[in-house]
Each structure stands twice: as structure tokens, then as C-alpha cells.
Amino acid sequence: MSKQYDTGKHKWTHGTVVEWVYGRTPSRWLLGPCPRCGMVTSNYGGKYSCHDDYCPNSASQFACPPEPTPDWWNTNINVQLDWNMWCAFLDGFVNLQESEAAFGDTPRDAVAALRKLDQSASTAIQKEAK
Ligand SMILES: [Zn+2]
């Protein structure tokens, strides 16, 4: 089953065909949240582009930096915008008292903080990433 994302701003499913479809075969699919801003992304030339026009990873920017696909996409890690900070947490999250969560200025920072906090997060990811 495909991963469902809910960043607090947007909800989508990994692998959904993007509405703009050229010709007969779909050319773009939705991917995980942008590591920089948490916006929806889609595949673009073997990498990914962000759907936020102002993000450095946006396809509409001239020098879209090539970035590898984040290894936490399509795993048990989730990100959500919580007020003005990004929060990373694992599937099965109950609340901040009972479940582990970590914060950062960007989704990437929050995920890195969660991995420092919980070594088992990485184990779970490797298991699920197969
Ligand atoms: Zn972005």
C-alpha cells in the first residue's frame, strides 16, 4: 500500500499520477514531502521537484539543485507542520507525551533530529524500505 502523507497543509498519496499528463502515458507522479519546505513534490528528470514556486527545489527555479531522493520518503516517518516548526514522528503516533517526536526548521532537520533521538527509527526504515 502506498504511503499517505499529511503535512498539516496537504494530504496526498505517494505515487498518485499528477494531473498534467502529456500524451498517453503519465509522466509525473507525486512523491514525498519536500525536505526543505514540506510541500508536495513530484518526480522530475530522475529527481524531484517541489510544487512550491518559491522553494529552491521548485521546478520553476532556473538552477534547481540536483538532490537525491530523501531516504525517509515512503517509510514509517511522517512530517507535519506544527505552528511554525516541522515535526517528525513515526507511524502510530499518539501524542507528544506518549510518542517520540522531533522538531526542526525544515522537514529534513526534523527527520535528522528524530533519527538522533531514536536509533530504532533507522532500523524500522530499513525494514520497510525493501
Ligand atoms: Zn520545497
Can you characterise this structure?
The protein is an alpha+beta fold and 130 residues long. It has a domain at 77-128. 16% of the residues lie in helices and 23% in strands. It is built from 2 helices and 7 strands. The chain has helices at 107-117, 119-128, and strands at 4-6, 11-13, 41-44, 47-50, 77-82, 85-90, 101-104. Strands 5-6-7 form a 3-stranded antiparallel beta sheet. α1 (107-117) packs across α2 (119-128). It is globular and about 50 Å long. The structure holds zinc ion. Residues 34, 36-37, 39, 50, 52, 55, 57 line the site of zinc ion.
Can you give keywords for this protein?
binds zinc ion, alpha+beta, two-stranded antiparallel sheet
Topology at a glance:
Elements: E1 4-6, E2 11-13, E3 41-44, E4 47-50, E5 77-82, E6 85-90, E7 101-104, H1 107-117, H2 119-128
Antiparallel strand pairs: 1-2, 3-4, 5-6, 6-7
The protein binds zinc ion (ZN).
Residues 34, 36-37, 39, 50, 52, 55, 57 line the site of zinc ion.
- CA-based shape: globular
Task: Assign a percent range to the helix content.
Answer: 10-25%
Instruction: Report the span from N to C terminus.
Output: 13 Å
Instruction: Provide the spatial order of strands within the biggest beta sheet.
Output: 5-6-7
Counting DSSP H or I runs of 4 or more residues, the number of helices is: 2
Number of strands: 7
Taken in chain order, the helices and strands follow as EEEEEEEHH
Give a short account of the largest sheet. 3 strands, antiparallel
The ligands bound in this entry are: zinc ion
Judged by helices, strands and strand pairing, the structural class is alpha+beta
Average pLDDT across residues? 83
Radius of gyration: 15 Å
Name the assembly state.
single chain
What are the segments in which pLDDT stays under 50 over at least 5 consecutive residues?
none
- Tell me the β content: 15-25%
